Amino acid sequence: MNEAQLLDSLKHHFGYTTFRNGQADIIKQVMSGRDCLVLMPTGGGKSLCYQLPATLLDGITIVVSPLISLMKDQVDSLTRQGISAAYVNSSLSTEQVNDIFQRLNAGKIKLLYVAPERLTQHYFLQGLQSLPIKLFAIDEAHCISQWGHDFRRAYTQLGCLKQYFPHIPVMALTATADVTTRKDILNQLGFIDPYVHLDSFDRPNIRFTLAEKYNGQKQILSYIKQRKDDSGIVYCSSRWQVEKLSEFLAKSGVNCAAYHAGMEADIRGVVQDGFTKDNVQVVIATVAFGLGINKLNVRYVIHFEPPRTIESYYQEIGRAGRDGLPAEALFLCDEQDMARIKKRISEHENEQRAQVELQRFQAMTDFVDAQTCRRQVVLNYFAEFTKQRCGNCDICLDPPTEFDATEVAQKVLSCVFRIEQKGDVQYLVTILRGQISPLVQKNGHENVSTFGIGKEKTPSYWFAIIRQLIHLGYLQQDIAQQSHLKLTEAARSVLKAEERLMLASPRLQKASYWRQSSATKQYDRKLFAKLRSLRKEIADAEDVAPFIVFNDATLSELARIQPTNNHQMLTVSGVGDTKLARYGEPFLSLIKAHQSR
């Protein structure tokens, strides 16, 4: 099949007129019968690489998918595009599973989604052998590798596919895998001479922003309110923190919900369903929430606490901006959080595993400490070396500058000395800024000479200064004593003004991470709001996620082009023949009514 025929099929089923980078080559290779390893960023178009071949191959494509909710979203979306698909998982009865197999035998299903735990069962594999299977696709393939950040034991058994189906091509797909993980995936699956597509890991539409965490809950509340009705995810490292933060935000009027592995499966399902359908604005979650979240209009991801690896970080921020529109990854950084996680990793009973995890966490630390483009740090980690600054991270937008910080550092170090090294960073900032609290009064520290000597500066300013003094070795945090700050021997020379100390000027961000991207195409925002409301009505009536009707990118293009007939509407990216027939009339009527108002 030539590329013109592939493009015709692409437009007919998916409503797109062009392939993204690498998609056409991958599809040609797999249709020729070759195994493939596909590495593309989240939102880069991985699913299309097996979904389009599935429509063209004379048989069935089996898709290995990690989560029930992801399977349902994918099947709902494909069905509305006129592609026959189904899933088999624990949510179905025996009768429903039998019905699906009857439809498979009758050639009425093109794609079947299954979990790795079911696919690798002997009886299930035996049942598949009588079917005309033409392709296996393994999503989230990094789970296969012991070095992958989401290692999942059932995935490691997928090598059996080559034993049962030696002549059927297998496509493994992932968004985050370093060099070691990639090699392990190929080895575990038993690929011989595979086609490997390594796309850029870059997600240029996502802005990377790191800010000092000095009053985390209020910072997040302020940020969410600035973003109004945008969908977002806030990641925490513990269930306790998830509950605490979600309770605070809910009491402050935010439409949010908590999500973690300690909750009952039914409740987690309700939260995820509500978020997917835009009934819940913000989800506060542990990393249990993320893998397989098929929601295209997440506009921001906030890390309230640091992830343990760059892979985890990149996988989690990859939930944002999957529609290609501007999004943001905000990281609230606290040195105490970093130290606590490092201590937990060090205490791992498997010493070798602890060393590997510490090395990976060091990469996360390097990202936090970066004084150069943050995107370069991430891309270099994935062996995608680049000298080009991104222009869309806090470092590029607000480059750090140095200043003579000798006097400022003396204020901090003197204050640590005056309170007898009995306070953490938060407490020290309270003293520097001259703020009275019950603990300050209990300790009598409102009477020390350094009380209030930094009241003209903001909390974020002092947090930035203290953090640099820790990094440079003038202060240490004693984890055994509630992270109290301790003076090091190196601090003596600064206190005595024996050396001139240069530090990076604290970047106060000045809400720069709330600026709209200049790359956003202009469109009628009032019409967009109307289209969004119509989409929600249709989605609710059909009990599906709104993006399954049309995603935000398609709505913004509808609001920009404002088509008034079927031919014009088919020129809009994301509108194919099936969706035009299903949804075209109400959207065209709304656009015409808007134009004649």
Automatic annotation (TrEMBL):
GO terms for molecular function: 3'-5' DNA helicase activity; ATP binding; DNA binding; four-way junction helicase activity; hydrolase activity; metal ion binding. It comes from the Bacteria. Its cofactor is Mg(2+); Zn(2+). One of its GO terms (cellular component) is replisome. Residues 27-195 form the Helicase ATP-binding domain. It catalyses: Couples ATP hydrolysis with the unwinding of duplex DNA by translocating in the 3'-5' direction. The keyword ATP-binding applies. Keywords: ATP-binding, DNA damage, DNA recombination, DNA repair, DNA-binding, Helicase, Hydrolase, Isomerase, Metal-binding, Nucleotide-binding, Zinc. Residues 521-597 form the HRDC domain. Residues 216-364 form the Helicase C-terminal domain. Coiled coil: none annotated. The keyword Heme does not apply. GO terms for biological process: DNA recombination; DNA repair; DNA replication; SOS response. Its EC number is 5.6.2.4. InterPro entries: DEAD/DEAH_box_helicase_dom, DNA_helicase_ATP-dep_RecQ, DNA_helicase_ATP-dep_RecQ_bac, Helicase_ATP-bd, Helicase_C-like, HRDC-like_sf, HRDC_dom, HRDC_dom_sf. Belongs to the helicase family. RecQ subfamily. This is DNA helicase RecQ. It comes from Thalassotalea algicola.
